[in-house]
Input
Amino acid sequence: EPEVTQTPSHQVTQMGQEVILRCVPISNHLYFYWYRQILGQKVEFLVSFYNNEISEKSEIFDDQFSVERPDGSNFTLKIRSTKLEDSAMYFCASGRASVGELFFGEGSRLTVL
Amino acid sequence: GEDVEQSLFLSVREGDSSVINCTYTDSSSTYLYWYKQEPGAGLQLLTYIFSNMDMKQDQRLTVLLNKKDKHLSLRIADTQTGDSAIYFCAETMNRDDKIIFGKGTRLHILP
Output
């Protein structure tokens, strides 16, 4: 069964460093998303991406964040200069349509020290 | 604004039925979802219901939607130890494509 895969599963970084989280969405999906979950809190929407551009982003997704789909298969989330409060589990998701079933990856845990 | 509320904990004896409840605020929700998250794992879509349906059954899972009261429930029949997880209620608005999640209900199974 096709699935969304994410790497790395866990990354530890120093505050101020750049981090890139990678995702391989399901191959025939057209809509891509990043969500995050700070420990013990709810899952929060970060950004949605369609047709090679951001379709919506939340207040969390400030200038430190960027997304890219560089080669038609990977979908990356970059945090330019990490802060302690960026420590969270980051989930990538993909879907065929803008409304409907989303498939989530297993998440990348980011720990900022 | 958009919000999804659910109770944080539920304890159920093995073999009994579990009922996890959720309320939401936006009446323009199109799809309502239940996701399961096991410890250290990602979000697994369990089931979803379209807003023009009242009920959906899938094996041990029954979803009930009361659109008037904006209330969604998930019933798990014959609860097993493998059902122990956090269950997230979520909704998609009609006007955009992001999913709004509740805080999750931790289901604890008693022997």
